[in-house]
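Quarterly update from the structural biology core.
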Amino acid sequence: MAVVAILPGRPATERRLAAILAADVVGHRRLMEADEAGTLATLKARRKGCRSRSSPSIGAHRMTSSHYAHGTDAAEQQRLTTMNRLLNDRCLAAARLSTGDRVVDFGAGLGQFSRAMARATGVKVVGIERSEEQIRGAMSQASLEQEAHLLEMRQGEVEAPPIEGAEWGAFDVAHARFLLEHLRDPLITVQNMVRAVRPGGRIILADDDCEALRLWPEPPALAPVWRAYQRAYDRHGNDPSIGRRLVQLLHQAGAAPKSNTFVFFGSCSGEPDFENYVLNIGSEIAQSTDDIVETGVSREMVERAIAELGTWRKAPDSAIWYGIFWAEGVKQG
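Predicted structure, tokenized:
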């Protein structure tokens, strides 16, 4: 799950979550009433690139596609930046990288975790990313932090990655996080990851299993809306529960599974970043409202769930329980 950045300044953060996040939901409806044609054109333009795209897979001579509901605009890049701040240290500890490891990062996004891995290994990381906007953002951030030397971003699809001939079988580690859930045929990508590493090289998969999310005490409207959010993945041929399949995917791709675990990604009332985690859940729901409504849940129910989160986050006993599913395999031979 991505994490939305908390709004800057204390006055803004004291506003109800519903007012922050339901604005898109309610605002779109009001705009439609005022100018239906213009609003539809604007939404279409904003969502360009967020819908399914197709690309040829290596050697399979068939088409595969992915669907990413959240887009790549400035707000999404800020969400991803916050996600990395909250999660990267935990994931880096789980990865157990060694000095000198050469890493290829599939679906590198803004490259922040790619750079974290490069700092750990002392070797530039190759990041594969389909979005030009994300690549520009990645290199801009790296330059601002004087870390451009740690990152080589390459544009391309993970089903047909831009890896040079001699590079195949030369990497020590192939990594993918929050990627496979968005792919219609994730096995193709995992096979490419296995192909990319040397014999004995490691393949690291980290992804969501949305069914595992627990909020307690549970906001009443959240459960049906969260189930619909997961069904929206299914409607696009993606898998919101892919986390439980990671070991199986490693095996099917020809790697020898070696370990699996959870990387905790929850929080509770009283922790400094708790509001960021709550905003994350509300933002993901708000951004996916149209897809959720297409499953049969009313727009009013979505707005109610967001509003309940706004109240729930202020309770002294609120807790979010979630973990990133993590699996690791080794290339045989």
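Residues 10-331 form a domain with the Rossmann fold fold (CATH 3.40.50.150).
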